[in-house]
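Dear H.,

Thanks for agreeing to be a second pair of eyes. The structure we're designing against is below in token form, covering all 370 positions.
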């Protein structure tokens, strides 16, 4: 009789244990999926973070490195699943409710942002602290020279030649004004400069399109990613230099976005196939991805999609931990256009390299002290 009681007890205990284990595992699975909202999910960012962490333990023992892999970001789901399961299993019934509360807290907890107090800007306090900015040739000196009635034609042609060496929006605006000149030689030279710049870009675009066709035909993902990246930046150059006609701007913006997204998708596929130990390849691809995110941000800025632009700029910044100064001015511009001036000031205060530019220095100091 006593043996039957113990046998029945053992059987009931085993059934309860199995049921408790299954419940703990099911709850742990759903809570681990729920907790994924708190973790980074971008594959290239996860790989980059894990790569740097693995490099820090390269000199440790094999056992340590093997156990360390459990803590990698890409294993967050497994770690969460194991944690919630052990938590539930070690505290029957009570653990179920406590683990649910912990998961909610993990996902929804928010940290208070500390905003620096600001005061009304008083220009008197700056005194003579600003660097003195002087003009060497005067503002628009080449523009004045080209449109002067009394300047010799030889100097006007030389000025146009100087402007053609750097095809920027400002220089092109001056060159385009010569198209209405009464002097045939000046007018034709201006037209030749613009025509040469357009043909140069068109030639490069056609070359990259051919490269893309070959890469697609041979299923070469790396060449396709590179060709799409170059096409995105070439179409952007058409817009940036204002060589394109205004009626085509929206069409070219679509081309920039299309090729940038294609290039990003190709690079992500390549990145997922590269082993974590290939550090140099990771750096090259993440740098290219950062440039593409920055370009997409500028496209969305053109379309007044500031939230989308900010997302792209922040992603570009996260991919380049070594140097974020290149993207911070764009982030500051987004916050300025959306009226968040306090954040603009805090961002500009981090840009020490801008202080070297004597023209920007006074503006930078005003924002830093505002």
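And this is the sequence the design step returned. I haven't edited it by hand at all.
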């Amino acid at each position: 009789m006593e043996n039957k009681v113990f046998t029945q007890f053992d059987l009931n205990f085993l059934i309860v244990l199995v049921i408790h284990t299954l419940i703990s595992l099911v709850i742990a699975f759903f809570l681990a999926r729920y907790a994924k909202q708190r973790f980074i999910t971008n594959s290239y960012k996860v790989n980059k973070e894990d790569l740097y962490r693995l490099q820090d333990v390269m000199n440790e023992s094999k056992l340590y490195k093997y156990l360390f892999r459990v803590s990698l970001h890409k294993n967050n789901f497994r770690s969460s699943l194991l944690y919630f399961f052990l938590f539930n299993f070690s505290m029957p019934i009570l653990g179920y409710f406590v683990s649910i509360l912990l998961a909610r807290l993990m996902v929804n907890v928010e940290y208070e942002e500390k905003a620096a107090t600001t005061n009304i800007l008083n220009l008197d306090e700056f005194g003579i602290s600003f660097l003195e900015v002087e003009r060497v040739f005067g503002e628009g000196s080449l523009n004045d020279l080209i449109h002067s009635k009394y300047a010799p034609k030889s100097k006007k042609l030389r000025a146009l030649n100087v402007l053609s060496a750097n095809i920027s929006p400002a220089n092109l605006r001056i060159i385009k004004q010569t198209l209405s000149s009464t002097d045939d030689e000046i007018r034709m030279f201006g037209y030749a400069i613009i025509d040469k710049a357009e043909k140069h870009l068109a030639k490069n675009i056609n070359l990259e399109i051919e490269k893309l066709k070959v890469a697609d035909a041979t299923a070469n993902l790396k060449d396709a990613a590179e060709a799409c990246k170059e096409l995105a930046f070439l179409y952007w150059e058409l817009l940036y230099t204002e060589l394109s006609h205004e009626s085509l701007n929206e069409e070219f913006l679509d081309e920039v976005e299309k090729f940038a997204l294609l290039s990003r998708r190709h690079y992500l596929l390549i990145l997922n196939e590269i082993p974590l130990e290939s550090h140099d390849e990771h750096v090259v691809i993440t740098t290219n991805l950062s440039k593409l995110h920055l370009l997409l941000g500028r496209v969305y800025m053109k379309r007044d999609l500031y939230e989308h632009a900010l997302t792209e700029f922040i992603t570009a910044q996260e991919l380049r931990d070594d140097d974020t100064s290149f993207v911070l001015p764009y982030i500051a511009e987004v916050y300025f256009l959306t009226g968040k001036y306090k954040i603009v000031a805090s961002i500009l205060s981090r840009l020490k390299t801008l202080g070297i530019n004597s023209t920007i220095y006074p503006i930078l100091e005003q924002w830093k002290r505002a």
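Two observations from my side: Confidence is low (pLDDT under 50) at residues 133-139. The CA atoms of residues 213 and 219 lie 10 Å apart.

Warmly,
E.
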